[in-house]
Specification:
single chain; nine-stranded mixed β-sheet; 12 helices; Nonspecific Lipid-transfer Protein, Chain A; Aminopeptidase; alpha+beta
């Protein structure tokens, strides 16, 4: 069927060979859903066609809290009236230890096999990066296949996923005569303010997190299609007296043979040790129900809550398997601008370090360019681009390529990087102390708005 929604207002670029790059319109929903199923749901994929189609239609519906259909780019083969490549930009807000800024999440980057290696993805990245810059996004992020996105100036610099897993024998049983102290029920819209408060409290543990507005929470509760890839079951945890003590978000079916948790938070004054066994028993019961419906086995519960979480400390013997996190690809087009944005947080860290009131400068060499940060009595007074003059990089510290992003986003310390990259190092004792104070290694928990 020939495509009928294209017009001059949506065309962004002629790419030659009968291909055009354009914005998507709502009329592309069915074509994009079919395209994404074709590209992403082949052999070995974890996504089913129904899940992928539902996710695409959710994005194209106009009901998403930050995304509209024209945030998709598509490459169309005019002669066939067919979409042959596509991707999208999902705006959101992240917090860097309390400092908020805009982020562009890239998703659903795909090209039909016969159209690959023609620069179609690069052409779309150029457009998407321009859109993101116009929206004042401080960075772009994508969770994607190994190595591929480095060619577009991305670095795998922020932890993604990972967690701990327990199996059937690890499920804590109630003692004889013991009653469940906590129960888990479906969330309702009236619960969303409580969930939002509890989530914000939990995110104080982390360096980076995703900021979730009331509109985002409503979307998570009831805005996605039931079969969509990213849909989570949002649940409230209550005491036996009916007092809300926390919330839970988990998969709506089995992932393989396990049920996965993507969010689990409790109020500040509630014991993880007391609540977590009840949550695990709920997950086991729910997993068995999913297994019965799908006519397959249930074997495990998975807490995909990153590298660190209080639940891991509450039931350490019941989580024998650890899965190391993958990583978000991160692109920061203007590192000095991002450092200026987080300057209040850097000043706070400095004040709490062994160098309060520091006056001086840090020259961070990336070999081809760099950043100079000037301090006056503990305040950041200037952040600017700086060009190293020495072949060895010079400056206070050196970070080859994009490796500084690992330090900036808390994924690696300077010492850890220097063990892998001999040309990464602090050049003085003072610089080493300052870098550890300003950019400590810290976990992040970014539940993106997808």
């Amino acid at each position: 069927m020939k495509h009928t929604t294209r017009d001059k207002r949506t065309v962004l670029r002629e790419l030659g060979d009968g291909l055009i790059l354009r914005r998507a319109t709502r009329g592309d929903a069915d074509s994009l859903a079919a395209f994404n199923c074709d590209v992403f749901c082949g052999p070995g994929s974890d996504d089913s066609p129904a899940e992928m189609a539902a996710w695409t239609r959710d994005l194209m519906s106009g009901d998403h809290p930050t995304f509209k259909p024209s945030d998709f780019t598509v490459v169309e083969d005019i002669s066939k009236g067919a979409i042959v490549s596509a991707m999208c930009l999902i705006p959101q807000t992240w917090s860097y230890e309390g400092v908020r800024f805009g982020v562009g999440l890239l998703e659903l980057v795909g090209t039909k096999p016969e159209y690959r290696r023609r620069g179609l993805v690069r052409a779309q990245f150029d457009v998407i990066h321009e859109w993101s810059a116009r929206r004042n996004h401080q960075l772009q992020a994508i969770g994607g296949i190994p190595n591929f996105y480095r060619r577009f100036d991305y670095e795998m610099a922020l932890e993604l996923g990972g967690g701990r897993m327990g199996f059937k024998p690890d499920i804590p049983a109630l003692k004889k005569g013991e009653k469940e102290r906590y129960r888990v029920r479906p969330a309702a819209e009236a619960d969303l303010p409580f969930i939002a408060r509890t989530y914000r409290h939990g995110m104080d543990r982390y360096l980076l997190s995703c900021v979730r507005t009331p509109a985002v929470w409503r979307y998570e509760l009831s805005g996605r299609r039931s079969e969509a890839t990213l849909r989570q079951a949002l649940r409230v945890i209550e005491s036996a007296r009916g007092e809300r003590v926390g919330f839970l978000a988990h998969s709506t079916g089995l992932w393989g043979s396990d049920i996965g948790v993507s969010a689990y938070e409790l109020k500040a004054d509630v014991s993880w040790l007391a609540v977590t066994p009840s949550v695990v028993r709920y997950l086991a019961t729910t997993g068995e129900k999913h297994a019965a419906r799908a006519k397959k086995g249930f074997t495990a519960f998975a807490l995909w809550l990153g590298t660190e979480h209080p639940a891991y400390e509450a039931i350490p013997w019941r989580l024998p398997r650890t899965r190391e996190p993958y990583a978000f690809y991160i692109r920061v087009a203007d590192v000095p601008a991002l450092i200026r944005r987080i300057a209040p947080m850097l000043e706070r860290r400095l004040a709490e370090s062994v160098a309060p009131g520091y006056t001086g400068e840090l020259k961070l060499s990336f070999y081809r360019d760099g950043v100079r940060i000037a301090f006056q009595r503990g305040r950041v007074v200037e952040v600017e681009r700086w060009m190293p003059k020495q072949p060895d990089g010079g400056g206070s510290a050196a970070f080859p390529g994009l490796t500084f992003l690992h330090v900036l986003f808390g994924r690696r310390s300077v010492d850890e990087l220097s063990r892998v990259y001999p040309d990464c190092s602090a050049r003085s004792e003072e610089a080493s102390v300052l870098l550890k104070a300003l950019f400590p290694k810290r976990p992040s928990s970014v539940w993106v708005l997808g």
